[in-house]
Design a protein that fits this description.
3 helices; 42% strand; 19-stranded antiparallel beta sheet; 27 strands
Amino acid sequence: MAVDTLYFSRDTKVYIKIGAAIWEVPVLDGFSFSQATNSTEVTLAEMEDSSGVSKRGRRMFNDSLAPVEWSFSTYVRPFKSAGTGSGAANDAVAHHAVEEVLWALMVGDATYTSNDFTGFTRDATDLDISFANSNTTTLGTADIFFSLDDAGDNPQVYKIASAVVNEASIDFDIDGLATISWSGFGSTLTSDSKPTKTVYEDVDATDNFIRNRLTQLTITANDTSNFPGSGSGVYTLTLTGGAITISNNITYITPETLGAVNTPVGHVTGARSISGNFSCYLGLDSNTNTGTSTDFFNDMTAAGARSLITNSFSTAFKIGGASATPRMEFAMGTAHFEIPAHGIEDVISLETSFHGLPSTIASTNEATIKYVGAA
């Protein structure tokens, strides 16, 4: 039989469904989805009988399906809803993000009512996303659809049922656009029909991309005695690169019934983890040298700092600039910093790792995320 249709990754669109709402989420090249099988091998190993025969056979049994693994990347794309028209994200002038449904899955139960998610605070000024609802054993789920040859007459659609977001990584490639790499799991992978999108405002816009080169970083020590910085504990560093990774450390539960191919029945969250790193040039101010990268290293390695096994810095990444629109702000009130390491290249740099920690071990205030869209 002749094959007259082949599927190409560049013809694919991704849709995410929660309840009756279906978002179109534009993704970048390099997406993936797959579901492996867990199997058991039974082999024979015996000595030879009187006729010199030794059985050497084997049998295979499919035990269960592993959780579906999926991943893709999106651009960071804030926008201000027009409040009208087909696919509008809101019925009022409020700030949104094309990829916001994924944040809803990352930080809480992803309940969607009245054009909004649990844990989101939005108005005509900005969109704020917190982790206040994330201290749960399970997170919200959605159905993710990969529609291959989406615009063709015979699209092949794969549905990941009960999908969860496990990890998100924000990249600071200096010459690129702000992107988020998403990955997660699901219960089953099946063929399905193409969904009809209901929320797709600004997915084709050209004014809601963010340039990483405009990103600014400010670090303010909560202990200004050991980390004086510019006199008030402030260090202002110019980035050359970096990343922030948020992980829910999810595991899946699968039954082990004999005589059946079992499928995963649900997920369980692990410890919430926010960590990252950034690099900057090793710079010296010949006048005061307060709050520079050399000052930051000197303060981090001074006797007073070395007597501390923990530290706390209020840290703010303003992706796209301090006041520009669109932009994304990622703030950590009590981040712990490791001692910076030197990178020996043509221009000497400092490379620093950090961890977003809550103010108390049971709190959920490790970080807050703010989106400000273009008008």
